[in-house]
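Revision sheet: structure tokens.
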Amino acid sequence: MKKTLMNKQEMPNHAEKFQQTEIFRNLIFENIREAIVVIQNGVMVLCNSKMMELTGYTEEELLSTPFPEFIHPDDRQMVIDRHKKRLQGQSTENLYMFRLLRKDRRILWMEINTLLIQWENAPATMSFMADVTRRRHTEKALEKSETLYRSILNASPDNITITNLKGRIRVASPVACRMFGYKSQEDFQDRSILDFLAPEDRTRAEADIRQLLENSFKGPVEYHALRSDGSQIIIETNAEIIKNENGNSMGIVFIIRDITERKQTTEKIRKWADVFMHADWGLTVESADGTRYELMNPAFAQMHGYTLEEMSGLSIKDVIAPEAREELSNTIQSIHDSGRRVFESTHVRKDGTVFPVLIDATAIKDENGHVLYRAVNVQDITERKRSEEELNIEQVLINNLMNSLPDKIYFKDLESRFIRINNATAR
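Predicted:
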């Protein structure tokens, strides 16, 4: 039987026909690396051995089954529509991808390139198909990696910056714009990462990058960085070499965090810690249940004749004089209810002696009003009490002296009002 293949667009009606000879089949048709099929009236009328290899069907099975049956249901209508348009002379894509169903129901991604031809004096299509399953899976994996990569960049609260091995920026995450005060990520492209550091830190940063390339870098490290307006921030930076599947270094990824506020807060905490540790009066943090001291300063321990280590094992009741312990629970409840209370009490030292104290206690609460702990100032008022007692004695002596004199003695303020008189004046 004579079968003629002609490209309708490239070959005129008078183009010479060629026979389907063994030379054609063996040298071209059967040895080409792509699957070749000729489709006419919805079925294959010709296929090569590569098509049988890809699908797992025999030639008889391929030629006796409608071609759409070999197409994945989700792609079937798309392939049919393009086939019809091509037969009708309408414009459609010649090169595209679809999913092919093997006999074992495995799915192959095929790239198809189709031409309109004449087969036995009737319109048909000749398609060249290549298995691109591995490529498709790789592309999908890359797409997922790209999506994941972009999601990480966009979601990370830290600035993620990727550079080449010389420190030239290739990618900067959106956080970089906010951190350094720039409008666009493009403002970072191909600039040295050192450009964003304060001049006094650049030499050290260069040395750190060299250590990173030599696998001797130990991060994270801190630098002073420059914002677009010239102001400085403090950043904490860690870095890692990016390597390909062969282990070759490809670039550097920097994870950068603005720690300016953290450093300022740390400095404030340090100052408060200095106050806490060096204050002359006792400072304590007491548990909400009123049983133990969670923190105390040296002055509080010294006030009671203990070291900090000794005092850390004592309960709150251990330092309160026995006569004041019965009121402890009521006192604590009063502090929790009112939020703050200032009162006098009596404490006991390590040697058993008691002494008066002035206590200023504040209940620290969470947003729901639950007490977390109490912050307490404790002052030894022994000297004040002694002074008050001495003053009281002096007052009694003065009063007795004034009242024993026969002369009138009195004191007036600037408005001539009596503020103190003796008995003689009163008579």
